[in-house]
Structure prediction request, 212 residues.
Amino acid sequence: MMVLLAMSVLALTIILLKLFQFFRSGLRRSGFVDPVMSALHSGQTADALTQLQQQRNPVARVMECALACAADTKMAAKDIEAEVSRVGSAQIRNLESWLRGLSAIAHLSPLLGLLGTVTGMIVAFMRLEEAGSRVDPSILSGGIWEALLTTAFGLTVAIPAMAAFYYLEGEVDQVRASMKDATVRVLVHFGKSPAYLSSRDEEKLTDETHGL
Prediction:
C-alpha cells in the first residue's frame, strides 16, 4: 500500500507537470501558422521569422528552423531535411519526457495490487491454519477484505494514470502532425521540399542526357 501510495503521488506530479508544460508551450494555440505563411507569400520573410520567434509553441520552433534552412541557398534538400528532423525530434522528446514513467505506473499499479492481494490471502489462510479446530469465519473474511484493498487501490491508481497517459500522448501526436504539415508548407513555398528537388534534379539530368 505504501508503494502504491508513492506511485500515486508520482503519477499525479507527472500529470500536473506535463499539463503545465503543455499549457505553457501553447500547444493549442496554433493560429500563428496561417499569418506566418501569409507573410511568406507576401515576401516578408523577416516579419514571418519575427512572428515565429515570439511563439513558444514547438511547431513554431520547427517552422523557424525550416524557414532559416530553406532561405539558405547553400543547403541541399537532404541537409535541410536532416536539420529540420533533428530540431523536430528534440521538441518531441521534450514533450514526451516522463510519459514513459506515467505509462509504467499505469501498468505496474494493478500488478502490485494483485501481488498485495495474493500475499494477504496467504497470510489469511496461514492464520486460519493456526486456528486449527477453533475456526472463526471472521478470521478468514477479515483477512480477505484486507487483502483485496491492495487490488482496489492499485486499480484506483492505474485507471487515471492510463487515461492521462493516452490524453497526453494524443496531444503529442497532434503536435507531431502539425509540425509535419507546417514544415512541408514552408519548404514548398521555398521550393525546397525533397519531392520538389528530386523532380527538378531528374529533369535537369534528363536535359543534360539529351544534350549529350
